Amino acid sequence: MWSPSLPFKFSNSCKTNKVDTILKSYQDEIMNSVQEECGTKIKITNDMIDDQINQWHFHNNIEAINSKQDMITTPTLLVHGYAASSMAYHRNFQTLSRGIKDLYAIDLPSNGLSSHIPLQRIPSTSNLKYKIMKDDDSKKVKDESGMKISVTHDWESRDSQWEMINYYEDYFIDSIEKWRQWNHIEKFNLVGHSFGGYISAKYALKYPNHINKLALLSPLGVERNICSLHNVENGMKPLHKGDVVTINDSDPTSPYYARNFTIPSILFNNQLNVLRWMGPVGGKLARGFIDRRYSNIPNPTYREYLYRVFYKSNIPFGSANILALTHLFTREMNAKDPLLDNCKNLKPKNIMMAYGTEDWMNREAGYAMTQNLNKLGHNAHYVEVPSAGHNLFLDNPKNFDKTLIKFLS
Known about the structure:
This protein is an alpha/beta fold. It has helices at 21-38, 93-99, 158-182, 195-206, 265-270, 272-277, 280-293, 300-312, 319-328, 363-375, 392-395, 397-408; strands spanning 42-49, 53-60, 76-79, 102-106, 129-132, 142-143, 146-153, 188-193, 211-217, 244-247, 350-356, 379-385. The radius of gyration is 21 Å and the shape is globular.
């Protein structure tokens, strides 16, 4: 089989062959329902690209969803978010495949049914760290400008930090490039959600000539922040251990922006594996969260699929996911290389930032990014999907599908 040459080596010899057969049975059940919805005129195929990347392809030979609307002929790829898979879009496949001639969705490596391709931990230097200052009564120290923080550790080496960021991002970015080459696609529309939105934007930065339109759905890592590696080059005074700084927790365009929470170290460094370590209690917590958060999803098999991913799988939660997230983001979920600091380098002309009206992600950051892009000459759009949260395409698929097809048309 033809094997593309990529900066990140996805060789068959280094992949992990473990397959969660129960997870696959849930996937197949979900997709059987999708096939029934799509009918026989939408050809659905499932491939494992070089035995590593799980791909779904929807090929449409019929008329577009609306006779007044031309079929979208540019191939379009859907990329899921963190600890998710292509099945996150199962409520959208039918409508989107009626408006898009060739629609694709993949499981990123170490997610869903894609292979758990080993990702080695590389030596890295410490990033900027700080603590929120508190008074004698353990109350956060504030003034009219904001909260006070004390820098506890400054950057050891920015150069090594950039190398580390590129290394961990490329694990996912180059899997998308592998998908593109395997399908012999020159240019495509890229749609990414949450962490997948962050990775999609970084793909567009690394491989700009292959992107037609870019849609970022409630993307992670948009905000400028006090831990951004761009701050010094943008004129901010370098911070050092012992410095006391007032942070801004309301303006995501400020280099002094920071969230006023910190994820406990054990959760940040182990994530879904913590639920599995907790035994039946962890299973109960996972089940309760899934039943509450996804109560509006009509297909109960999808909830079982998520429960398998979160807790029940016989395969540990992908260490590559944990390594990447914990090196690309701080425990305050500040991106070290934020998207707002990369606007000037993005090449796609047409970009959409989409959020749910009840989204917990920072919508102000997305709106600010849209404004920045338009000032730089892009045709950028900011939209909010009504009655939807972070998983906007699952919460309100009808409105989301209409919004995306309109943007891609």
